Amino acid sequence: MTTQHRFGPYGGRYVPETLVSALEELDAAYERYRDDPAFLAELHTLQTDYAGRPTPLFRADRLSARAGCRVYLKREDLAHTGAHKINNTLGQILLATRMGKKRIIAETGAGQHGVATATVAALFGLECHVYMGEEDIRRQELNVFRMRLLGAEVLPVTSGSGTLKDATNEAIRDWVANVGDTHYIIGSVVGPAPYPAMVRDFQAVIGEETRSQVMEKEGRLPDGLVACVGAGSNAIGLFTEFIGDAGVRMVGVEAGGLGLDSGKHGASLARGATGILHGSFSYVLQDEDGQIQEAHSVSAGLDYPSVGPEHAFLKDSGRVEYTSATDEQALEAFQALSRLEGIIPALESAHAIAFLLSGEHGFGAEDVVVVSLSGRGDKDVYSVAGILGVKR
Amino acid sequence: MSALESRLTQAFRTAGHPLLIPYAVGGYPDKASCARILRAYAESGAGIVEIGVPFSDPLADGPVIQGASVQALKGGIRPADVIDLASGPAQAGVPVVLMTYLNTILAYGPARFFADCSAKGVAGVVVPDVPVEEAGDLQRTAGQSGVDVILLAAPTSTDARLERIASAASGFIYCVSTTGVTGARAALSAGLPAFVERVRRYTDLPLAVGFGVSTAEQAGEVARFADGVIIGSSLVDIVRRGEDLDDALAGVREFLTGAGEAVGARERTV
After folding, report:
1. A159/B180 touch (CB, cutoff 8 Å), yes or no
2. Minimal Cα–Cα distance from A322 to chain B, Å?
3. Does residue B268 belong to any structural domain of this protein?
């Protein structure tokens, strides 16, 4: 089966010629191994024995009462390293070792993907360099320390806004220079083909597990799925399994930042225009000259001025609804989930919770809604404490 | 073919020696100074002048061109201003090539972009984030305005890819000297002559080498086996280090005179 390169007009492979052979090599490796029984068995063993899959589907009664619908949390926060990112890095590290690569590079925003990459690099004994914007290094100090503990080198990126976009630029530049022995583990459903489709496939386990878990608990499919969307990997991971089930409503929640009209947000789908960033054609926050604008979100993982090309396609097709939650709403949801369910969510995931607490979600009291709790909030407690302290 | 041959191809074939192709970041350090730098290029032996359109996220560029791009953008330079700058060298009879990332062209509107390029004398456009697979639409649109889309070949390109690049290319082929971003290198890659010869197996088009050619000596070395030598970051760095514009212009002229002598001493290879 050939890996998908385009989602309608979106996606593609807009990269320097130097990288194309490496992408072709990755494409070929993925096509060779994606259905290979030995590869899949090794991945499955790692997912279960190492990453702790399947992650639980938890019925959140107190949150349900507040939200006005029957909410289940897909507990990706309980996966090893504390977020869904490990699903993708396990898959990619297995490909990297099969391609004979000796060195791993990655970009990271919130640090969750950096930690998940450093983790699998440690597991396989590979050298690991993680690019991280200096602004993100400041607000995600805990994850920086985790990566260093895991043996990775964290390389600060000072160009641009010092966030995820700039870290991705630097990772691509590194890859161009070291393409022979290096594999670039992109952390989301972005980048040149085959990354968006390949990362989606590695994350699709979220939705696959959800289907069987919700069938077991409810005897039917869910009425709705909700996930936060920065670049969009946890959302795609949850949605993909249910795309063909017309009765399942899907909602992606972008970073509303200080409000969509403030110009300080990460809502590429709501307010971006079509264009190219990091090798694929999608919605991009940009000015009239095509200069990429800086995104803003209280959550580093959503602070990205573009979005995976498949989300662009799903928006245009109408199959998925996209909305946004502001920084303030996300901070409220962060505290609400902590107190209602004893679960401190990542600020990213708190955007999805915020949608359900908005009072405008449109679900009925009996509707079963699965929310992707994509990561845990330990990494965010210091920055949230700082923000709440300032407010007090 | 000669009636249809591009101005760029002709520039290589009618010169008596390999071409020196200096690059400037459009609008750096500011628009007026950049126009004078481009004039200095045209007067100092440039066979073609290459002008970069500053972009917020130049992922094929190293620190020198990134820094210059940031400054040019802070100064308010816009793509239309950079296209305007092309008319200087073009009027002096030196063909101009723009280097721009694809998003700039898409935001401008491809048909209008290439029409404006053509009107200001731009003969070709290098788009470093468009490999041959994605180049078809752009080439058709550019062709309607008589502008070449210059394709790049890299040392990592397989023979199959080189064949495909060669068959789709027009104007000349931009051979990337090294795996890496733009910027000065202490030494040329040992495999560079063999790489250029590998590209030449598939094409009669002129081959220009860029990325990392830093000194007059390296330019002379490259001119032994290539048809053109592109020098970017070193020149941008001379401008950056200049005490004032006159100092920068003197430095640029001195560098290009030396590089021109080194390149001009070589036999034409195409």
Report:
1. no
2. 24
3. no
> Is position B270 within any domain?
no
On whether residue B66 sits in a domain, the answer given is: yes
Which residue, among B103, B198, B110, has the nearest Cα to B158 in the 3D structure? B198
B112 vs A contacts (CB less than 8 Å): none
Q: Which domain holds residue B192?
A: 3-261
Which run of H or of E encompasses B37?
helix B31-43
How far away is chain B from the Cα of A274, in angstroms, using its nearest Cα? 9
The type of residue at B190 is A
- pTM for the model stands at 0.96
Please tell me which residue of chain A has the smallest CA distance to B165: A17
The angle, 0 to 180 degrees and rounded to 10, between the axes of the packed helices B233-241 and B245-264 is 150
Question: Is B269 domain-assigned?
Answer: no
Q: Which CATH number fits the domain that encloses residue B214? A: 3.20.20.70
Q: Do A21 and B156 lie within an 8 Å CB cutoff?
A: yes
User: Distance between CA atoms of B128 and B150, rounded to whole angstroms?
Assistant: 9
pLDDT in tens, chain B (270 residues): 344 689 999 999 999 899 999 999 999 999 999 999 999 999 999 999 999 999 999 999 999 999 999 999 999 999 999 999 999 999 999 999 999 999 999 999 999 999 999 999 999 999 999 999 999 999 999 999 999 999 999 999 999 999 999 999 999 999 999 888 888 788 899 999 999 999 999 999 999 999 989 999 999 999 999 999 999 999 999 999 999 999 999 999 999 999 999 998 787 766
Query: How far is it, in rounded angstroms, from Cα A111 to Cα A249?
Result: 30
